[in-house]
Structure formats: C-alpha cells, structure tokens
Amino acid sequence: xxxxxxxxxxxxxxxxxxxxxxxxxxxxxxxxxxxxxxxxxxxxxxxxxxxxxxxxxxxxxxxxxxxxxxxxxxxxxxxxxxxxxxxxxxxxxxxxxxxxxxxxxxxxxxxxxxxxxxxxxxxxxxxxxxxxxxxxxxxxxxxxxxxxxxxxxxxxxxxxxxxxxxxxxxxxxxxxxxxxxxxxxxxxxxxxxxxxxxxxxxxxxxxxxxxxxxxxxxxxxxxxxxxxxxxxxxxxxxxxxxxxxxxxxxxxxxxxxxxxxxxxxxxxxxxxxxxxxxxxxxxxxxxxxxxxxxxxxxxxxxxxxxxxxxxxxxxxxxxxxxxxxxxxxxxxxxxxxxxxxxxxxxxxxxxxxxxxxxxxxxxxxxxxxxxxxxxxxxxxxxxxxxxxxxxxxxxxxxxxxxxxxxxxxxxxxxxxxxxxxxxxxxxxxxxxxxxxxxxxxxxxxxxxxxxxxxxxxxxxxxxxxxxxxxxxxxxxxxxxxxxxxxxxxxxxxxxxxxxxxxxxxxxxxxxxxxxxxxxxxxxxxxxxxxxxxxxxxxxxxxxxxxxxxxxxxxxxxxxxxxxxxxxx
Length: 568
Hints:
GMP Synthetase, Chain A, domain 3, 568 residues, Rossmann fold, 31% helix, seven-stranded mixed beta sheet, ligase, five-stranded mixed beta sheet, single chain, ligase activity, alpha/beta
C-alpha cells in the first residue's frame, strides 16, 4: 500500500482499515457556523434541541432565544470582531450565548468557570474581551481582576433559571437538600451587575442584516498547546464548520434522529465541537448536564435515552460501573467517542458489555478544532489506536529533530496534520504560530506516533513529556501501560526528575487499589524488568492518594512532576 503519511496533493490508496461508506474527501461549504443553526430551526423546529435537567427547549424556541440574546449583546455594545467571554458551566444559557455572539459576528472566548481570579484575569486581558457572561459563582472572581481587562460589561448568569419551573420552585423549600442544590448553582452578585435571563426576557428579537463570513474568526479557545504555556487558538467559522461536517461524515449520522449527551464541558474544545457544533449540524437533541455525575446521567437516561456519548475514559468507566451497580439500562447508546487520553482496553470492553454499543477512540487538539483522527465506528475499531485521518485530513510522520524528513511506515516520528480544521494560529503570538505551523499549513502536534500497515495511527508519547536518561529516550506512556497491569496498582503516572549528569531519573507515581497491602520499589522494578529496557525501569516510587487531572480527566503530568520532586 502507499505510505498513508503523504502530502495533500499526492495520490494514495485508502488505508486497509478505512470505514465503509465514508468518503476520503469532502467539500466544506463556504458558510458560517450559524448557518447550521438556521437549518436546524427551519427543518426540525419542533424537535427538542436542548434538555437541561428536564427542561426541554425545541429548535424553534432555541432560535427565538438566540435572536433575543443577539439583541442583548448588541445593546451591550458588541459588534462584529468584538470578543465575548463565556465563563459558564454547561447549561441552556451557555448554548444560547454561544450562538448569539456568533450571530453578531463576534468572537466567542471560552473560559473554565472554576479558574482562579488571576487565571481568569490573565485570559480576559489577553483576549481583549469587552463583555463577559459569567456564572454567578464566578462573578466575584471576574470582578476581582476586572481592572486588568478591557471588560465594559459583566453579566451574571443564574444556572437555576434554566431549570424546569417545578425544580426552580423546589429550590426555595427550607430543607437541606434544596439549600445544598441552591448553593451549588447560585452565588452572591453585586446589585449593579445585570442578570442575563432578565435582559433576555425583556429583549426584542434581532436578526443582524449581515451574517459572518466563513473566514471570520469565531472562537478563541485557550490551550496549553504543545508548549504548556496557556494561549488562545484562533478558530474560524470554516474551521468549526469543517470539523462538524467531518464528524457527521465519520459517524454517518442522520439529521433529526440522535440524542447526544453533553457531559463534557463546553469550555473545552472536545465538548464544544461535539456538543455545540456537531450536535446542531445533525439537529440532535442535546442532553445538557452542568457537570459529570453518574447518578445524574442515569437519571437523565431514564427520562431521555441517549444514542451518542462523547466522553473521556474515566467518565465511561464510572458510568458503566454505576449502571452495573444499579441495573440501569444504557443499551440505547449505540456509539461513544472517547478522546483526550488513551482508552484502556478494559474500559472499552466494560462499556461495550454494558451498552451493547461501540466505543471508538479519537484524537485531536484544540488546534485542530479539535478532532483530526478517529477509529471506525464499527467492529473494525482498534482500542488503543488513535485511528485514521478524518475526511479531507492528511498526516505526515516526520523525524523528531528534522520535521522536513518523513520517516518510513512503522517508524516512530512526530505527527504533522493538515486539513480544513487546522487553526489559524495563536492569538497575538506570531513567533509561536510560526513554530507550530510549517509551510503548507502543516501543524506540528508534538506527539510521537507510528503508522501501522493498515493505516492506523498509534500514539507513542508526547515529545515534551519524553524522559531522557543516560542518553536514552523513555516514553512515559509505555511504562504506564505496563505498570497498570501490576497487581495492586489502580493508576499510574510516570515522569522524569533531574538526575545530574544522567539527565533525568524515571519516577513512577502510583495510586493503589483499595485494600492493597502496598507496593514497593523492588516489586515495581521486578515487574518492569520483564517487559521494559533497563533504562526505562523506574528508579523511584511515590504513592499518591489520587492523580491530579484536568476538567476532562486527563492526568496533569506537570503537576505530578511537581509533587514527586518535592516529596521525600
């Protein structure tokens, strides 16, 4: 077969594992992302668009709310090109605000609502946002750093206002459960801060006379990128339209038939594209949950059974475990796409056993809007592999020291990606953009992969997390994969720590199974020496109660490294 890692203009055969019925290339329409919402409202007006904890909003109602939200933002002075910050958990207001800002031609800037005041101030100042729609609990943190930003208006969002009427009434009851729920959803807001839902209720609809263009910037999405320094990836309407259409092509979803579960945070690229862009493109019903909680997901499943679940492996594992314990029925889920981290085979098998459906691993980055590779949604998927390039996506695997030199099929190298979903660069960071985007629009991912004979791409590790010890390169994920099979070990992260002339020392941070008697360094060495090169065997062991993870469950190796280097 031809080398699957070839340039975009070279002829090539389809990889052996290519899914049946999926075209290799697709035509990306020259339209803004908002056109997908217009079609959903027109063609599926009466179908439920959003279900937030039992409160249903049809596509027609969503379209009407977006028209009023557009008026609210316009009255606050937002114009085309202005940045609108969303500091919100998942909720109906988040969906409405996202589409309202895009309708005006404004640029959405997503923020984690649990960030500290300093973290929020840094990102708000960096983007130059002029209006921020903020969850009530985050309002004090945004106001604390407001003088460092260009914010003209801060608008509070009451999460409970999106609940069904009976649920809002129940929050007023003088009982502990109601007080706890109210405290989790609401927060104190100064009297001079306006409220989004009140503004929305009083607003007249506004349909801007001109729509944004495909080439216009739609989103600034903050990411650690490939260097670990937080910066905003610039994504256009065309980038987001392309990835939503690529997702529809890959899943072969029929518009107006799917029920997508929105358990991933919308402020993360994975959740934003799969839940806000892809779901609207296929006119799905989006079941929105403010945070991931297995009991809450199972309650929603009883009310409105889902068909498609984008998630990360820990979510799949916890949800499957909860279903096994309670006898809950998850068999309506035909497909799940897992991303953000490696999908353990045991997790995949458990999910498929409980649901009877399929889980397929995907790969992407914020810089690719975010999905670039995917496993087939068929029995041909390979747990543990990243998958195949999405339609109209090309890849190269190059020498880690010389990105102009391609390596042979089966050899390890850095993954480069080219396609219509690849971002425009980093906001106000031309030097970093030039480093990551090579001639021809090839994005350096910083990930070390190999391509197998069937065209499947397999992750080896991230270049920046590679450990160099005594001149040898150690890929942490390979050591972790082996250690996860060791009796008594529930989870593990492998990092490097300074070791003088040797460069770095391999350190294993492990979380023990409940009830495990203990694991010592000698046992770890004995376990590893049977499968790993001597230089890759951990030289130090640290036992942790848990591993630090991001909002989507990815292990934060930098935080682990800090923990182990300061431990005795």
